[in-house]
Design brief:
63 residues, transcription regulation, WH_DNA-bd_sf
């Protein structure tokens, strides 16, 4: 079997951004762009559907 190269070109690039951070960023963006207004109810099920993520990801973003 051929040996694998030891340089950086063979390494797996890992994305350090978690799904929680992505959801949090989307929510912040929605607030800053006035898509979410003061007093708006944030219904977990609706957020999950709109963002295409699980309830766990939405809950983690709120912590």
């Amino acid at each position: 079997m051929k040996r694998l190269p030891l340089d950086d070109t063979f390494k797996v690039n890992r994305n350090p951004v978690t799904l929680r951070e992505i959801v949090l960023d989307k929510l912040r963006s929605a607030i800053m762009n006035f898509h979410l207004l003061p007093g708006d109810r944030l219904v977990e099920r609706d957020l999950c559907d709109r963002l295409g993520v699980s309830r766990t990801s939405v809950r983690e973003a709120f912590w």
